[in-house]
Amino acid sequence: LAGGIILGVALWLRHDSQTTNILYLQLGDKQAPNTFYVGIYILIAVGAVMMFVGFLGCYGAIQESQCLLGTFFTCLVILFACEVAAGIWGFVNKDQIAKDVKQFYDQAFQQALMAESETNNGKAVVKTFHETLDCCGPDTATGAITPLWRDDLCPKKDSFLKTLVESSNCHKKIDELFSGKLYLIGIAAIVVAVIMIFEMILSMVLCCGIRNSSVY
Predict the structure, then answer these.
(1) DSSP three-state, residue 34
(2) For residue 214, is pLDDT > 80?
(3) CA 53, CA 188: separation in Å to the nearest integer?
(4) Which of 33, 36, 77, 122 could bridge 112 with an S-S bond, Cβ 3.0-4.6 Å?
(5) What's the distance, CA 94 to chain centroid?
(6) pLDDT, tens digit, for every residue of 22-58?
(7) Which residues pair with 30 in a beta bridge?
(8) 168 with 143: CB under 8 angstroms?
C-alpha cells in the first residue's frame, strides 16, 4: 500500500501540468533543465519496487519462509540505501534546480526582448512561462513595466494599476513551484524511510521467530 501511494504521488508530480509545461520547453537547440525529474524517477522506481517487495514479504510471512523473509529484508536494505542516497542528492541540488530553470528563463527573456530573428522561439518560451506561472519579467519592476511596451509577452490585465499590483516576478514563482514540489518529494521520502525501518525490524523479528519455533 505504501509503495502504491508513493508511486501515485510520484506519477502525479511527473505529469503535473505546471512542471511539464516548463520542463519540456526548448530554446533553440537548448532543452530546459530537467534535473528535477531525476528525483521523480527515483520515487517512481522506489514505489514500484516497494509494491513488489511488499508482496514478497507478505507471501513469505504467510508461508513462514525464512528464505523469502531474508530476501525481503535484503531488498529493503538496498531500497533504503538508494533512498538515502537520493535524499542527499536532492538536498545538495535543491537550490541548483530552481537556479538552472531561472537561468533558462532569463536567456529566453533576453532573446524575446531582442527579437534576434524570426526563427527564434524565445518569445514562445517566455509566454509559456508567463501563462503557466502567471508572472511577468525576472523581477517585479520589469514585470510591471514590460506589459506597457511588450503586451505580447505578458498575461493581459485590465489596467496599469492592476498590472502593477498583481505582477509577480517569475524568479519568485519558479522558486515557489520547485520548492513546493521538492517539499512533497521530501515528505514522501521520509514517510517511506520510516515505513522501511519498521518493515526491516518486523521482518527480522518474524524470521527469527520462525527459526526458533518448533518444527512439526
Answers:
(1) coil
(2) no
(3) 18
(4) 122
(5) 10
(6) 888 877 777 888 777 877 888 788 888 888 888 888 8
(7) 27
(8) yes
- Which triple of cell numbers denotes residue 134? 502567471
- Please name which of 181, 180, 155 lies closest in space to residue 168, comparing C-alpha atoms: 155
Task: Give Cα 191 to chain centroid, integer Å.
Answer: 16
Is residue 161 within 8 A of residue 153, CB to CB? The reply is: no
Q: How far apart are CA 32 and CA 26, in angstroms?
A: 6
C-alpha cell belonging to residue 118: 524570426
Locate 53 and state its grid cell: 517487495
Residue 144 CA to residue 150 CA, distance in Å, equals: 11
Query: For residues 53 and 203, what is the distance between their CA atoms, to the nearest angstrom?
Result: 12
**Secondary structure of residue 31 in the 3-state scheme:** strand
Read off the pTM. Answer: 0.70
Task: Name the percent of the chain lying above pLDDT 70.
Answer: 84
Q: What are phi and psi of 98, to 5 degrees?
A: -65, -40
**For the packed helices 36-63 and 170-212, what is the interaxial angle rounded to 10 degrees?**
20
Q: DSSP assignment of 72-121, as one string?
A: HHHHHHHHHHHHHHHHHHHHHHHHHHHHHHHHHHHHHHHHHHHT--TT--
Residues 6+ apart with CB under 8 A from 112: 120, 122, 123, 125, 126, 150, 153
